């Protein structure tokens, strides 16, 4: 299989079948096998055969790589696929993670980073932001992403503007007025779990000449594949659902092969590379993504319905419920409603504080997507940098709490919350 064929196969998520026939694989199978040595069935593993081929990608902790001839070293330094020279330029373990992510997301390539925010920065930079350009953002984008735009890119001469991504008319107007270089939105927003019409947003942005960056962290590749909508860059915090165990920090940008070349070249210069061990942890977590997410979504749907009937809860935010404002859009653009649930407590901030202090199984922490359940108070964490008026303008009330639903037995999670809400 040549390089061009390999790139095309990666984009399709295929492996060689009998007689060389390409065989389509389902996401669950890709999550388990992609990136494993020899997984494509093309006879290529990228590893020496002298001692046998490991069934799991090994952790290559070497800083540098020795080559037996000057010619081999020259080919490695030139960036030939499957050859390595220095860990800042790439390593087999990181490459295995990148291959798996690209296969699962359905893109030609991936570039891994040491954090989700590093990935966001890399994608926006590769999209062409610089002095005299403009950036359009969804108004309810992750707080750190908004801070990156306003505190880093704006001082460089980038015009930054926000828009309600669920209002297609407002988006079209903003695109026409700003003609942005890049447009960034999230497949599912934080913390109100709004779901924008991703395919239509990409179409509008492309018509306006913008390059599109989609943060797909909440939805995961199992819930949405923004590259299929035409997005140029798909961003993930691999820390969250993809790794799924709360033990690794990482990020990734999924893109075309050409854009990956640009991303890689800049990554080499600034040294924004994940360690092989972190890449291995993320890849190990990825293997059970489909199993974890199925259980998490089941628990989340039951939790949302239970909270909706609880007297201490004023409102529930969950795309899988018909009362969510984007329920119909979510049914059309997402493959599943996700494992995140938010709720407005009738008692406001005091009730939220009591809840966080009283839970035992729900871990109060500023993250999401772990196999264990988590709870967070946005006013004091993800959106603490906003004034109360700014939070309220976004629909984030004083009693809003966000739940990242894990894989535990639902009845145990329910009893823990019932006791905390009664307190």
What this model shows, in words?
With 423 residues, this protein is an alpha/beta fold. The chain has three domains: 3-77, no CATH class; 106-286, 3-Layer(aba) Sandwich (Aspartate Aminotransferase, domain 2), CATH 3.40.640.10; 289-422, Aspartate Aminotransferase, domain 1, CATH 3.90.1150. It has helices at residues 3-12, 27-33, 70-77, 92-105, 116-126, 143-153, 168-178, 198-207, 220-223, 226-229, 257-270, 276-286, 289-308, 327-333, 348-358, 388-393, 410-422, and strands at residues 14-16, 22-24, 109-113, 134-138, 159-163, 182-186, 211-215, 233-236, 251-255, 313-317, 340-345, 363-364, 374-376, 400-404. The strands form three sheets. Strands 3-9-8-7-6-4-5 form a seven-stranded mixed β-sheet, sandwiched between helices. Strands 10-11-14-13-12 form a five-stranded mixed β-sheet. It has a two-stranded antiparallel sheet with strand order 1-2. Helix 2 packs antiparallel against helix 4 (92-105), helix 4 runs parallel beside helix 12 and helix 7 packs parallel to helix 8. The radius of gyration is 22 Å and the shape is globular.
Please outline the helices and strands:
Elements: H1 3-12, E1 14-16, E2 22-24, H2 27-33, H3 70-77, H4 92-105, E3 109-113, H5 116-126, E4 134-138, H6 143-153, E5 159-163, H7 168-178, E6 182-186, H8 198-207, E7 211-215, H9 220-223, H10 226-229, E8 233-236, E9 251-255, H11 257-270, H12 276-286, H13 289-308, E10 313-317, H14 327-333, E11 340-345, H15 348-358, E12 363-364, E13 374-376, H16 388-393, E14 400-404, H17 410-422
Q: How would you summarize this macromolecular structure in one to three sentences?
A:
The chain has 423 residues and is of the alpha/beta class.
């Amino acid at each position: 299989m040549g390089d061009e064929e390999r790139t095309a196969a990666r984009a399709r998520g295929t492996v060689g079948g009998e007689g060389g026939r390409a065989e389509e694989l389902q996401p669950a199978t890709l999550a388990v096998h992609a990136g494993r040595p020899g997984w494509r069935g093309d006879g290529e593993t990228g590893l020496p055969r002298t001692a046998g081929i490991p069934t799991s990608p090994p952790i290559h902790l070497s800083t540098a790589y020795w080559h037996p001839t000057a010619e081999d070293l020259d080919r490695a330094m030139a960036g030939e696929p499957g050859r390595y020279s220095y860990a800042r330029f790439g390593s087999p373990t990181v490459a295995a993670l990148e291959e798996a992510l690209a296969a699962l997301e359905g893109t030609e390539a991936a570039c891994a980073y040491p954090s989700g925010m590093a990935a966001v920065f890399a994608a926006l930079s590769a999209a062409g932001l610089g002095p005299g350009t403009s950036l359009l953002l969804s108004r309810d984008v992750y707080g750190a992403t908004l801070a990156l735009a306003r505190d880093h890119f704006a001082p460089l001469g980038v015009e930054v503007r926000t828009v309600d991504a669920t209002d297609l008319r407002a988006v079209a107007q903003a695109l026409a007025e700003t003609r942005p270089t890049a447009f960034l939105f999230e497949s599912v927003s934080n913390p109100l779990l709004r779901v924008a019409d991703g395919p239509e947003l990409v179409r509008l942005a492309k018509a306006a000449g913008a390059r599109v960056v989609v943060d797909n962290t909440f939805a995961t590749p199992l819930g949405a594949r923004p590259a299929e909508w035409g997005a140029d860059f798909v961003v993930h915090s691999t820390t969250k659902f993809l790794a799924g165990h709360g033990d690794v920090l990482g990020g990734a940008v999924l893109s075309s092969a050409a854009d990956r070349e640009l991303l890689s070249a800049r990554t080499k210069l600034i040294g924004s590379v994940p360690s092989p061990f972190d890449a291995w942890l993320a890849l190990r977590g990825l293997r059970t993504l489909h199993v974890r997410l199925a259980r998490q979504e089941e628990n989340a749907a039951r939790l949302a319905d239970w909270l909706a009937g609880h007297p201490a809860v004023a409102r529930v935010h969950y795309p899988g419920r018909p009362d969510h404002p984007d329920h119909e859009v979510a049914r059309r653009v997402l493959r599943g409603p996700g494992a995140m649930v938010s709720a407005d407590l009738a008692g406001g901030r005091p009730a939220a504080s009591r809840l966080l202090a009283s839970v035992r199984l729900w871990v109060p922490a500023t993250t999401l997507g772990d196999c264990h359940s988590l709870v967070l108070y946005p006013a004091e964490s993800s959106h603490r940098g906003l004034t109360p008026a700014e939070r309220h303008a976004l629909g984030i009330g004083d009693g809003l709490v966000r739940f990242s639903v894990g894989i535990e037995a639902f009845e145990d999670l329910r009893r823990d919350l019932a006791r905390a809400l009664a307190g």
